[in-house]
Design goal:
The structure is a homodimer. The first copy, chain A, folds into two domains: 62 residues, Arc Repressor Mutant, subunit A (Orthogonal Bundle), CATH 1.10.10; 175 residues, GAF domain (Beta-Lactamase, 2-Layer Sandwich). Chain A is built from ten helices and eight strands. A six-stranded antiparallel β-sheet of chain A has the order 5-4-3-8-7-6, sandwiched between helices. In chain A, strand 3 and strand 4 form a beta hairpin. The longest helix of chain A has 22 residues. The first copy, chain A, is globular and about 60 Å long. The termini of chain A are far apart. Chains A and B meet through helix 1, helix 3 and helix 4 of A and helix 1, helix 3 and helix 4 of B. The structure holds a DNA duplex.
Chain lengths: 260, 260
DNA sequence: AACAGGGGTCGGCATTGTCGAACGACGCTC
DNA sequence: GAGCGTCGTTCGACAATGCCGACCCCTGTT
């Protein structure tokens, strides 16, 4: 039997986490056999794990259909994570001001599993209906936040670099070499942009939030309609770039100061 | 050795969940020995679980201090839970309207471990700064949401009924018998109130959201300053009570209709 | 009425996680 | 600055633990 390199990754916990991820990915309820088939585990095994997860409130079971879904306890854990998260805490003050000054929505994100996790979101300051995106996961290569995180984060692993890039609009960067080139440009100029590469009609500008050592621990972006955020060359307006970069620097300073 | 009544609650997963709860309760970072002492487990055991939780992103370790805290993956799971949660989905439409009509903040909650979990929160429609309370856990006996859930939920277990009620202000109901009496009144009138029992200066009115069978699966409340929400007898204004009850009934109907 | 498909249960086996002691690093005190 | 205490981490042995796969029951369908 294969023996793990590092000792003691608790198998059942890994499996439980895989089940939770599966339930989160397929938004909706999943049956026992679906889960056991997806993870290639025996039904009985999955059932035992599910019952345990249910008893601690991490999953719930629909009594009529018998299907499983995520449980309420996770919501509380997630919000507790936000309370502890230092990046978010430091970004709170500055992002409000940034949204007010630019008149656009502001989002703060961090890297997770080569995707971008939104940890803070300030609505565009107008009366329009907007949905809170905190907790959402975005593909890194298709949004301004992600590009900055890729550019200033650790180098991608072999496995990551060989995965194809998914396209979302006609201008999403799907060519790996083109992306590498753009990330170089991002490093040179110190900020990233994204014009209709994720959502049609939307553009964004992002800058890195760096902790001691220079590695990016997060990013902050301003996002809004292309016609407001960009000039007539479809390039982000300089004032927005400047303001995002200022906010990012301010937060970086606070993060550094808090620990050193 | 004690043998569990139902077979197969996976021990390591229960322990992992206990660790996560501990990390959530003590907001902040915890050391390995603190955790192992709190749960009365061997250091090595806790370490193995923590490493596994870390590898799946449920906890993070501060590289400088070595202490552990909740991880980013939980945020995503929590927000995924919100996506699936049917109570919240149905409440979305009605709570916005309720907030607009009453001019006050609206919250929707559900029962969890004999406390109240906030699953939706609409800010009071003015420019004041408010913090999102989704994911927060409140004591059931001290808020309007909780009283409704207690009144229309399953009867409390022996263990629950013998726990003392914590006081938060001078008027918090801390006497178990007084609470029972008030819950009876809530059942009679179909709604609950709370005047400065949780936060000084704040009052709230709540009504039950019931699924098929009549059991409350959630509750919705309007919350605001006492002087706005109540009349000069410090009783909630009738118009607010009516509106909350209407919203609750509408959501209940949708929930029932969705399944039957 | 028979069948298919779902969730749930059970007991035996060996894999798996647990324990406790020992290690190395750090920081504090004297 | 040497010693001590504390903390996170590693390791190996043991056996308790959780895993597997066959079996059961129920519901809905053909």
């Amino acid at each position: 039997m294969y023996r793990a390199a590092v000792p003691g990754p608790v198998q059942s916990i890994e499996r439980a986490a895989a089940i939770l991820r599966l339930l989160a990915a397929r938004s909706g309820r999943l049956g026992l056999v679906e889960i056991s088939a997806s993870l290639d585990l025996a039904k009985g095994t999955v059932h035992g794990i599910l019952r345990t997860l249910q008893s601690v409130g991490f999953v719930e079971q629909d009594p009529t259909s018998g299907k499983y879904q995520l449980g309420a306890a996770l919501l509380h854990l997630g919000s507790s994570y936000l309370d502890v998260n230092e990046l978010r805490a430091r970004a709170l003050n500055w992002s409000d001001a940034l949204a007010a000054r630019t008149g656009e929505a502001v989002r703060v994100g961090t890297s997770m599993d080569s995707r971008v996790l939104i940890v803070h979101h300030v609505f565009r300051p107008d009366e329009s209906l907007q949905t809170l995106e905190v907790g959402n996961l975005l593909p890194a290569h298709a949004c301004a936040l992600g590009k900055v995180l890729l550019a200033y984060g650790p180098a991608p692993t072999r496995a990551q670099a060989s995965q194809p890039l998914e396209g979302f609009t006609r201008v999403t960067v799907v060519d790996r070499r083109a992306l590498t080139q753009e990330l170089g440009r991002v490093r040179e100029q110190g900020w990233s942009q994204e014009v209709e590469e994720w959502q049609p009609g939307e553009a964004a500008v992002a800058a890195p939030i760096r902790a001691y050592g220079g590695l990016a621990v997060g990013a902050i972006e301003v996002r809004g309609a292309v016609e407001r955020l960009c000039d007539y060359h479809r390039q982000p307006k300089t004032e927005h770039v400047t303001r995002v970069r200022e906010a990012a620097r301010a937060i970086s300073r606070e993060l550094g100061a808090a620990r050193w």
